[in-house]
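User: Please predict structures.

Assistant: First:
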Amino acid sequence: MTYFVDKNSIVRDIWGNSDTILLIFAGASAEFALNKAVDWLYFTGKLPKDPLERLFSTVSYAHDIVFAERTKALQSIGMMNKIHGAVEKKRGNTIPEWVYKDVLYMLIDYSIRSYEILERKLEPFEKQEVLNVFGEVGTRMGLNDIPKDFETFKTERHLHLKQDLYNGEFTQDLYKQYRNHIGFARYYLLIETQIMICPKLVSGLLQLRKFSVIKPLISIYKLSRLVKFDALLKAMILPSAYKSNIQAMNTI
């Protein structure tokens, strides 16, 4: 059986661990709120109604593709195209290609950042593996000019961050929805995690502090995994509706 991602790939290590996925989730929540095209996500009404569900569906799709048999993964990518096409038809407009690239680049960047925060620095060839996997996803979605090498990707990523993000009324509303849906304590942890993982441009637009108070606790958290205490910590952090979903992503 042929899989979309090789069983020995670092991408499986990253996306098979609920810890790293939680960090990716936190970073994505920041950039979704800042994206100049966030009005597309508001169009269906699903984002403000349940912002965590909309974000979780994006992360869940990526996880499922990483671990799927190749034929099934390609079918999933095709289904994503159909869903987006239906939204475009309903609105009578086309989602710009740069919006899709923003999401793709975000997943690549936060995959690397999350693993390096919780595990170790990735080797250049491992970063290239992450780019290759998600680059193919982008190509299968019909996107053009996806960077082939990691240095070019870093340049493109920085350019997209500068051009495509904006702290506007949708940003403020979405953060209000985050706070309403997850409560003060979890919202505080979300912000502290975003401080830790987000690029400087993102942190600057959100006016986040430069240093996260939870960063020094990462070593303690790593130790807690050895004694299985991390399950209790996640139970405290995650909204009950998503605990089983996140835990199900532990595939390594």
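Second:
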Amino acid sequence: MSELPVVSAQNISKSFRQNSGESLEVLRDISFDIMQNEIVAVIGHSGCGKTTLLRIVCSLEAADGGFVLLDGAKCVKPCKDVLMLFQDFNQLLPWKTVLGNVTHPLVVTKTILSREDAKKHALKRIAEVGLTGFEGSYPHQLSGGMKQRTAVARALALQPRVLLMDEPFASLDNITRGTLQALTHGVCEKYGITTLFVTHSVEEAVVMSDRIIVMSKNPGRIKAILANTERNAPPECRAEFAAEILKLLDSQED
């Protein structure tokens, strides 16, 4: 008996009504499975519906056609088992400290009933993202990279079944981005968190994912789903694989 996918997108389609009254088709017939502990990247040019796809998987947006299954059951509303991490640095609560931001969702969702236990749990996640010593700092006192570390710690504190990431490192400098890529990948592997993330960076897709979904646009469709065997390969091998993906991306555009 085969293992059941954690996430299964089945024939997802989505259109939006424009100001002109015309309908713009954003996604057409999107289907894929993500297995337990897999990290899957979605890559494609702007306008191919990557963020809309994440929002549908997270049940923040309703599909016009098709459906999403979580462990074999249809997803019809947002749940704490599926969390989304955004690119926006302002996703933190500005009136709460780093510790407060990480502890808050644990208390609100009653994931951990005791505030003292929630604090202990949050401190472990904060340490894992390298923010020990900054527990009492407020968001306005943090750099962009530190804010994203806090957001990662907050998401991981809830130990979601599925983590969705919408270009979470795109606005960071190269050094900080690389550090957070490695950190996030390592923590997701450690806790067995199934991950789907959107990126414009082919390099990021290669260094972080187990498989890569390559999308075309007008409307967004799946061009290919590639097994990533080069993530731990030497840099020159990763570069060759990245070049192949770029050719595939360029070949799909009109």
